[in-house]
Specification:
By secondary structure, this protein is of the alpha+beta class. The protein folds into two domains: 120 residues, 2-Layer Sandwich (Dihydrodipicolinate Reductase, domain 2), CATH 3.30.360; 121 residues, no CATH class. The chain is 37% helix and 22% strand. The strands form three sheets. It has a five-stranded mixed sheet with strand order 4-1-5-10-11. Bound molecules: iron/sulfur cluster. Iron/sulfur cluster binds next to helix 5. This is L(+)-tartrate dehydratase subunit alpha.
Length: 299
């Protein structure tokens, strides 16, 4: 295969994958929504969960996006230095988004800031956003595709706490944000929390936390305990499905962290909604694609 043929093949696969992610929720999110549905007893909460499930089925049956807001496309790329299309990746992901925009179709969500012009192709300056992790001695390329909708992006916030504010300060920051802006996203939410030194390190981690599978835990037992405590705390608000009240508010709370400067606690929160459209695909050097988030998908 020539380089051009390889680029075309991967672009086509990514365009199909992006379009698919907009229509079908990942397996873990579908399972979690069913689990939360079983815990509800009120007619309103159960009716909303049942409507969500019907919405999902219709999206697949009618081959349409499962939420009208298909978001701004974000890609988390973990790329081996020996992956053959590393240098072409950003351009081909952009082209894949354009193709998916017309094929899926996806809502036009890329407005050039300061010009206030919608490009109508879902691409623009810096969109789609591509975050990179480079892996030495490897020839695979893992790609997380994420659709950042407007509602689920609005509760995002980052700040740097005084060190004395401690873990209590982190808890207050997260709960203040959930009780004020949480409802801008459609619950049940997936809450990503980043704890690091500064606003940008914490913010990136808080979004990365949303890529983790539901039910996973931070490997540090204390951080994992804090995930559970935050989950219980946010659930006790009782947002319920679509914020109409219910037993739970969240599908989970994921904390990602780094070591930090002793004088600062950078903290950030990012939120995914019930329509948490993230997909994970792994390409080998021959461009065979394996989708891990959605069972039975061939690209
Ligand atoms: S918060 Fe999520 S489900 Fe609600 S409108 Fe936005 S993308 Fe759709």
């Amino acid at each position: 295969m020539t380089k051009e043929q390889s680029v075309e093949l991967m672009t086509d696969k990514m365009a199909k994958f992006v379009a698919y992610v907009g229509k079908k929720l990942p397996d873990d999110v579908e399972a979690k929504l069913q689990e939360l549905r079983q815990q509800e007893t009120t007619p309103l909460a159960t009716a909303i969960y049942d409507t969500m499930a019907r919405n999902q089925k219709l999206a697949v049956d009618l081959n349409r996006p499962c939420c009208q807001d298909t978001g701004v496309l974000q890609f988390w790329v973990k790329c081996g230095v020996n992956f053959p299309l590393m240098g072409e990746l950003e351009a081909l992901l952009k082209e894949a988004v354009v193709r998916a925009t017309f094929a899926a179709p996806l809502r036009h969500n890329s407005v050039e800031t300061f010009d206030e012009v919608n490009t109508k192709r879902n691409v623009g300056k810096g969109t789609p956003t591509v975050f990179w992790d480079i892996v030495p001695d490897d020839d695979h390329c893992e790609i997380y595709t994420y659709m950042a909708g407007g509602g689920c992006t609005l509760p995002g916030k980052a700040m740097v706490l005084m060190p004395g504010m401690g873990y209590e300060g982190v808890t207050k920051f997260v709960l203040d944000q959930m009780t004020s802006y949480g409802l801008n996203a459609c619950p049940p939410l997936l809450v990503g929390v980043g704890v690091a030194t500064s606003v940008e390190t914490a913010a990136l981690l808080s979004k990365k936390a949303l890529m983790r599978p539901l039910g996973s835990h931070n490997p540090n037992p204390r951080a994992a305990e804090m995930e559970k405590l935050l989950e219980d705390g946010i659930n006790s608000i009782g947002l319920g499905p679509q914020g109409m009240s219910g037993k739970n508010s969240v599908m989970g709370v994921h904390i990602e962290n780094t070591a930090r400067h002793p004088s600062t606690i950078g903290v950030a929160v990012n939120v995914g909604c019930w329509s948490h459209r993230r997909g994970h695909v792994v390409f080998d050097k021959d461009l065979n694609a394996t989708v891990t988030t959605h069972s039975g998908v061939q690209l």
